[in-house]
Amino acid sequence: MQTGTLISLALYFILMIGIGLYAWRKSTDSSEAYLLGGRDLHPAVAALSAGASDMSGWLLLGLPGALYATGLVEAWIGIGLFIGAFANWIIVAPRLRQQTVDYGNALTIPEFLANRFPDRATALRVVSAIIVVLFFTVYTAAGLVGGGKLFVTSFAGLFGDTGMSDYMTGIWLTAGVVLAYTMVGGFLAVSLTDFVQGCIMVVALVLMPLVVLTGDGGPGAVAQTLRGIDPDFLSLANGLTIIGFLSAICWGLGYFGQPHIIVRFMAVRSVAAVSTARNIGMSWMFVSLLGALGVGLTGRAYAVQNNIPLDDPETIFILLAQTLFHPLITGFLLAALLAAIMSTISSQLLVSSSSLTEDFYRLFLRKHASEREAVNVGRVCVLLVALAAIVIARDPDSQVLGLVANAWAGFGAAFGPLIILALTWPRMTGTGALAGLVTGAAVVIVWIAMGWNAAFLGGEGIYEIIPGFVAAWVAIVLVSRATARGPAQRMPA
């Protein structure tokens, strides 16, 4: 079985590296080409790239695992994300595509903020770049944990005598392939591989639950089995509290502040193409989320019906892939999981690299660095961030959903209110922007450190993005009103 699976995975790896080489020949001669693909992404590529880099291993590991363990009530996270993603395409996408060009052809989010608020340019670039690198290192580690879990579950003992050896092999192999095409091909390679990976992911997510549902007894048997576990297993309100509902639905707030997602808006070929990309992206997301819900629920029913123990609910996708399909198909499905993991890792590495290159190296060390030098420095930065993430991901007991939740909240709170108001509110000031950036990140970090996301004032925990987002928004508005001078700035069309 392992031979056929390995063949499929090897073909997948070769395809990804081939795309990287193609992109290297097309668009790595300048910083704009390496970091944004020359701002010429096709709407479909931009849409699926944004979706695939967004969902990551969370879509095939974290969300199905939560549904497997708890039931349909966990779907509120997916519902919140869908609403947030749609709002992001409406509010942020067209404005960011236009204004990053109007404000000095900014290539990174920190550079855009600096150009938008020149009175606080250096502080905004440095602070935002630090936040980008800090949280993306954790976020990248979450993806590598997913790669490690894949190899522990699928190839136990093949690369060594212990699970830890398999785990670290999975991490190094995942990181190595991502580094190969990201360092070589830059943003275009990341976007094209994301497009292919997004297609693979949606096929796998639709195929897997359909196979279970068409098995013995059909959908009725699946539903009956789940209700046998808990009569309310298929209820959206099972054990749901107001705080729990808000914590789940407010995951959608994070979209406004995710640099690896909104950078796709900057790269789409025109403002007019944004609506087309939105329709493609939201359709992909809707089908993918339904598939992920199906994997978790049908997977739980299948495991119960066949008396299959599962120590880690986040590996249900891997279990179904191994037990339901021919080894070659299993390899394809595991490639879908790797696709989800790698699409996000590559995006995060590139955005981190762009911040280190444009907002540190070119800002402080080599202001007049050539385009070729900047591209090469960017490649080195990709490697450095990846190595730091590998160190964080060494713990095999790490939970993908937990790591993603922390990083998602950090970005959402720090950049979400900042990006929305920077694009839409003329009276926002540079001091207000800096206050919101620092406040949002600080509140999230303190909230996690104090454990209030697990238990707040002796009761149920509150997801850290909620207090962080609110605090950042209030800080921006209050400080901007206190420091505003003269008439409101005229926003670009």
From TrEMBL:
<feature type="transmembrane region" description="Helical">
    <location>
        <begin position="284"/>
        <end position="304"/>
    </location>
</feature>
<dbReference type="InterPro" id="IPR050277">
    <property type="entry name" value="Sodium:Solute_Symporter"/>
</dbReference>
<protein>
    <recommendedName>
        <fullName>Sodium/proline symporter</fullName>
    </recommendedName>
</protein>
<feature type="transmembrane region" description="Helical">
    <location>
        <begin position="195"/>
        <end position="213"/>
    </location>
</feature>
<feature type="transmembrane region" description="Helical">
    <location>
        <begin position="167"/>
        <end position="188"/>
    </location>
</feature>
<feature type="transmembrane region" description="Helical">
    <location>
        <begin position="432"/>
        <end position="450"/>
    </location>
</feature>
<keyword id="KW-1003">Cell membrane</keyword>
<feature type="transmembrane region" description="Helical">
    <location>
        <begin position="233"/>
        <end position="256"/>
    </location>
</feature>
<feature type="transmembrane region" description="Helical">
    <location>
        <begin position="126"/>
        <end position="147"/>
    </location>
</feature>
<keyword id="KW-0029">Amino-acid transport</keyword>
<dbReference type="InterPro" id="IPR011851">
    <property type="entry name" value="Na/Pro_symporter"/>
</dbReference>
<keyword id="KW-0915">Sodium</keyword>
<keyword id="KW-0813">Transport</keyword>
<keyword id="KW-0769">Symport</keyword>
<keyword id="KW-0406">Ion transport</keyword>
<comment type="similarity">
    <text>Belongs to the sodium:solute symporter (SSF) (TC 2.A.21) family.</text>
</comment>
<feature type="transmembrane region" description="Helical">
    <location>
        <begin position="405"/>
        <end position="425"/>
    </location>
</feature>
<feature type="transmembrane region" description="Helical">
    <location>
        <begin position="75"/>
        <end position="93"/>
    </location>
</feature>
<dbReference type="InterPro" id="IPR018212">
    <property type="entry name" value="Na/solute_symporter_CS"/>
</dbReference>
<feature type="transmembrane region" description="Helical">
    <location>
        <begin position="374"/>
        <end position="393"/>
    </location>
</feature>
<feature type="transmembrane region" description="Helical">
    <location>
        <begin position="316"/>
        <end position="341"/>
    </location>
</feature>
<keyword id="KW-0472">Membrane</keyword>
<dbReference type="InterPro" id="IPR001734">
    <property type="entry name" value="Na/solute_symporter"/>
</dbReference>
<dbReference type="Pfam" id="PF00474">
    <property type="entry name" value="SSF"/>
</dbReference>
<comment type="function">
    <text>Catalyzes the sodium-dependent uptake of extracellular L-proline.</text>
</comment>
<keyword id="KW-1133">Transmembrane helix</keyword>
<keyword id="KW-0997">Cell inner membrane</keyword>
<dbReference type="InterPro" id="IPR038377">
    <property type="entry name" value="Na/Glc_symporter_sf"/>
</dbReference>
<keyword id="KW-0739">Sodium transport</keyword>
<feature type="transmembrane region" description="Helical">
    <location>
        <begin position="462"/>
        <end position="484"/>
    </location>
</feature>
<keyword id="KW-0812">Transmembrane</keyword>
<feature type="transmembrane region" description="Helical">
    <location>
        <begin position="6"/>
        <end position="24"/>
    </location>
</feature>
